[in-house]
Design goal:
Layout: H1 2-5, H2 13-25, H3 38-45, H4 49-61, E1 65-67, E2 73-75, E3 98-99, H5 134-145, E4 154-158, H6 161-172, E5 178-183, H7 187-196, E6 199-206, E7 209-210, H8 212-220, E8 225-228, H9 242-252, E9 259-263, E10 285-290, H10 292-295, E11 302-306, H11 308-316, H12 327-337, H13 340-366, E12 379-382, H14 387-396, E13 399-400, E14 402-403, E15 416-419, H15 426-443
Parallel strand pairs: 3-13, 5-6, 5-8, 8-9, 9-10
Antiparallel strand pairs: 1-2, 4-11, 6-7, 10-11, 12-15, 14-15
GO molecular function, one term: DNA-binding transcription factor activity
Protein name: Aminotransferase class I/II-fold pyridoxal phosphate-dependent enzyme
Domain HTH gntR-type: 10-78
Length: 444
């Protein structure tokens, strides 16, 4: 190992960091290996100590090393991040488990796209043409203007909400910039922030949404962006109340140039009104609405309304010659959403999800498990025992669940499970609740 460490070379911070990176890529350095102390490295290479510090700083910001204080600097272990859409599989492949942790919509409530494909015929779209299909643009503009407080807005299309958020952050932030995230938070946002090297500042969420004190504290730490879910917050299902939204707008009024991203992912399915935290005079903002929850995750399309400055910078990251959203996909989405039958199905789908979640919450209350009936595809269930232990007990009983721990930036204040139960039969729901109560008792 000493021979490997002695192979580090370079005269500048970039050269030294590049040397360590090369050793890691060749397998000469492994996760957990120690790097020499800054002073020792500087003396051996004949460089200023600050140069060695800067080199380690570059490696740390790239996520390649971890500084452990007196324990020294070590090569980082890759940290897996939980992904949305599926739960961790059971280690025993012989067991068949019912997955109630995936957070997916029910295919039975998604309009069948095959009925609309015949209407998509038309001339080919060529380079240099408008990025947004005119029919979709007209309807999307009306949809977004109905809820956007600032008078002036522009539309941008991306390949889904995750793509929109990632590009919005990239046009406004640089590595190490601070960003306010709800805590608990949507897994994709956690993943995006970690991969990009931003610094996440957690803002607690309660039954009325993002907390005022939490946002105020995050702004005091210099966050340059805020991501807020106005309704059907994932994983809790909570939405902003009128009072809370007004309070958050008042706090943000003193920070008009902080980018505020509102992710209204549940939009057409939500049983709650849209309440914005963006005031009429806020200067940097974006409202993102994807179609994934009501047209299916494979319909990779999201509409973003934003202030003109943000839209112009976002357009620089969406070259119309390489990364526009397919016009065939745009026309398909518009054809479905313009059909009154599809609109009716989507409306009934939202009511179905709400009714099934409420029925499940009623079953929980009979077992003295109290959860607030909220919005969204899942139910946020307090378990009053270590969530991983409860999940393990449920796995023994044939259920694959998602623990609340995965959604937190900080340590969870209370243990929870996020359960997707809308496609269970009544009998299956009763069985799950019974098994959950027994698992909580066993985990205690």
């Amino acid at each position: 190992m000493d021979d490997v460490v002695s192979s580090i070379e370079g005269r500048t911070a970039a050269e030294i960091a590049g040397s360590v990176r090369a050793l890691l890529e060749r397998g000469a350095l492994q996760p957990g290996d120690s790097l020499p102390p800054v002073r020792a490295l500087a003396e051996r290479l004949g460089v200023n100590r600050n140069t060695a510090v800067a080199a380690y700083g570059l490696l740390s910001r790239s996520g390649l090393v971890v500084a452990g204080g007196r324990a020294g600097t070590r090569i980082a272990h890759p940290e897996p991040v939980a992904q949305e859409g599926f739960s961790h599989a059971d280690p025993d492949p012989s067991r068949r488990l019912r997955d109630v942790g995936a957070g997916n919509p029910d295919p039975a409530w998604i309009p069948d796209p095959s009925a609309y494909l015949g209407a998509l015929a038309g001339r080919p779209v060529l380079y240099g043409e408008p990025v947004i299909d005119p029919d979709l643009e007209a309807d999307a503009l009306a949809w977004m203007r109905a809820d956007a407080a600032p008078a002036e807005l522009r539309l941008t299309l991306t390949s889904g909400a995750v793509d929109a958020v990632e590009r919005l952050l990239a046009q406004a932030l640089t590595r190490d910039d601070a960003i306010a995230l709800e805590d608990p938070c949507w897994l994709a946002n956690i993943h995006t922030v970690r991969l990009a090297g931003y610094r996440a500042v957690p803002v607690p969420v309660d039954a009325e949404g993002m907390t005022v004190d939490g946002l105020r504290a995050a702004l005091a730490q210099g966050v340059r962006a805020v991501i807020c879910t106005p309704r059907a917050q994932n994983p809790t299902g909570h939405g902003l109340s009128d009072t809370r939204a007004a309070q958050l707008r008042a706090v943000l009024a003193d920070h008009p140039y902080v980018l505020v991203i509102e992710d209204d992912h549940f939009s057409l399915l939500s049983q709650q009104p849209f309440r914005s935290i963006v005031g009429p005079d806020h200067r940097r903002w974006a409202l993102v609405r994807s179609v994934s929850k009501f047209l299916g995750p494979d319909m990779c399309l999201a509409v973003t309304a934003s202030d003109p400055h943000t839209a112009e910078r976002l357009a620089l990251r969406l070259s119309s010659g390489t990364t526009w959203v397919s016009h065939l996909l745009q026309r398909l989405a518009h054809a479905i959403l313009a059909d009154p039958n599809a609109q009716d199905l989507i409306s009934r789908a939202g009511a179905h999800y709400a009714a099934r979640n409420a029925a499940f919450a009623e079953l929980l209350s009979a077992h003295d498990i109290s959860t607030r009936v909220a919005d969204g595809l899942s139910v946020w269930v307090p378990v009053e025992a270590p969530a991983p232990l409860v999940a393990a007990e449920l796995r023994r009983r044939g259920w694959l669940v998602r623990t609340g721990d995965e959604f937190y930036l900080d340590s969870p204040a209370e243990p929870h499970l996020r359960l997707t139960v809308h496609d269970l039969t009544d009998a299956e729901s009763v069985t799950l609740v019974t098994d959950l109560a027994a698992s909580i008792a066993a985990a205690r």
